[in-house]
Write a structure and sequence with these properties.
Elements (H helix, E strand, L loop, with lengths): L1 E2 L5 E3 L1 H10 L9 E2 L5 H5 L17 H9 L6 H4 L3 H7 L4 H16 L3 H16 L15 H5 L20
Parallel strand pairs: 2-3
Antiparallel strand pairs: 1-2
Length: 168
């Protein structure tokens, strides 16, 4: 197996077949392959998963980011949720409402609501699967919204951290 310039693993036909044969129930929908293949020809089975999505390794980093940021693989429950309402409902004081509202406006201006939905999904998935994640680090701890989503455990209001440290 090799990796592309984005650090994603790219499988050969043989590696992909081995993965499938080791676990036929495994989802292979979003695996990168070194070339487009036809599972029916290789495995000669009737119920083959959808053909693997192929991403051109010649894409620039910016093109790759644009392509992936337009396609978030989220369950409909998260895709359709009102993330602003969810965040604001978690606030208990006027100060919290003001800070969360100010941050949400900045997230919205940058088109990042889909990211907030994905982070909510990620946290819920980690909690459901008993995966431990860190307390928080770097500039992300300046975001009160991320604190409310439980991405980190640092209350930026308590420590008087400016959102400008996060969303520069």
């Amino acid at each position: 197996m090799k990796s592309d310039i984005y650090g994603q693993h790219i499988f050969t036909e043989a590696e992909l077949c081995l993965l499938y044969l080791q676990d036929p129930s495994r989802t292979l929908k979003h695996v990168l392959v070194d070339r487009v293949i036809n599972f029916d020809d290789i495995l000669q089975l009737e119920n083959i998963p959808e053909l693997i999505e192929y991403i051109d390794p010649k894409l620039s980093v910016e093109q790759f980011d644009d392509k992936n940021q337009s396609t978030w693989h989220l369950p409909l429950e998260y895709l359709n949720m009102d993330i602003a309402k969810y965040v604001l409902d978690k606030c208990t004081t006027g100060e919290e409402l003001q800070r969360a509202g100010d941050e949400l406006i900045k997230f919205q201006e940058r088109g990042m609501f889909i990211l907030l939905k994905y982070l909510k999904y990620l946290v819920d998935t980690m909690r459901k699967n008993n995966i431990v994640w860190g307390v928080g680090r770097g500039s992300s701890v300046a975001s009160f919204v991320l604190f409310l989503l439980e991405v980190h455990r640092i209350n930026s209001l308590y420590y008087d951290l400016s959102i400008d440290e996060f969303l520069k």
